[in-house]
Amino acid sequence: MSKDLSRLLAGWAHDPGEVRARWIQADDGTRKLQLRLDLGLFQMEPDGRPDGTQPRGAGSLCEFYIEAERRAPDNVLPDKLDFDACAELQQEVMQYYYRIMAFYALGDFQNVVRDCDHNLDLIDIVSEYAVDDEVAWQFMQLYPYMRMMHARAGAETAMAAGRFDEAAQLVRDGIQDLEGFYEENYEPTNEDGSPVPPPPELDTLRELLGQVDRRRPRSAAETLREELARAVELENYEKAAFLRDQLKSLKGLDPRLGPKKRSRPGGRENPS
């Protein structure tokens, strides 16, 4: 049998500006996940570790250390993670990183969330137990990307189910976490005093928050309000008056709106 990959890659060109992935059926009848790269492809298991191994008898090294921590006195590992242990974990985090890319390209957002949870847990473990701070920081630098992907995939899943409020909250939580991470770990200004531009992961989530609002189905009343605001902005007062009448009529026909209620002075605090 030929060992040349050319036949497998025929018709599946690499595009540096696009992540390309696909499902294939292996010779044993199981499904595998493939990710196209510049020099070939990765083939991964869809569940468990992407390479299909069970290190130390566990589903993954991350699972092994979480279970070891759970069994340890005071839930604290007795030993630090040395360079060899961190190197093993770095290999694992990169395997999941590539599978996250493949799942996202295929629109499999639930599995993106699952694998991001794995890598975020792994980053927590290394940041707490690594024997060397520089090694720990190498893992911590992956946090923004993993947190962003977790929020993106969770929001896409919620929007597909029509839960737009949940989607928006997931994105806002991601933004808050990333803002806290950058505030804690980065200086706000450059050496020359100029402000540091927003990191790309934050920009991505802020843009996504706007997309959630734009993709949210609009009620008839919301549509009229938006049209009214545009008419006022354009000083089209005749159309604005017409839209106000339409909105009043719509409110009168909608039994869900009920009579107008006055709020207490000062309002109330938002629930946490």
Describe the fold and architecture.
The chain is mainly alpha-helical and 272 residues long. The protein has three domains: 10-141, no CATH class; 145-187 and 200-217, no CATH class; 221-253. Helix content is 57%, strand content 6%. The chain contains ten helices and three strands. It has a three-stranded antiparallel sheet, with helices on one face. Strand 1 and strand 2 (31-37) form a beta hairpin. The longest helix is centred in the middle third of the chain and has 23 residues, at 83-105. It is globular, with a radius of gyration of 25 Å.
Annotate the secondary structure layout:
Layout: H1 6-9, E1 21-25, E2 31-37, E3 40-44, H2 61-71, H3 83-105, H4 109-129, H5 133-140, H6 143-160, H7 164-185, H8 200-215, H9 220-233, H10 237-253
Antiparallel strand pairs: 1-2, 2-3
Morphology:
globular
Poorly predicted parts: 253-272
Instruction: Please outline the major beta sheet.
Output: 3 strands, antiparallel
Number of strands: 3
Give the count of helical stretches.
10
Number of discrete domains: 3
Distance between the amino and carboxyl termini: 63 Å
Sheet with most strands: strand arrangement: 1-2-3
The radius of gyration over CA amounts to 25 Å
Mean pLDDT: 87
SSE run: HEEEHHHHHHHHH
What share of residues is helical?
Answer: 55-70%
Strand-pairing-aware structural class? mainly alpha
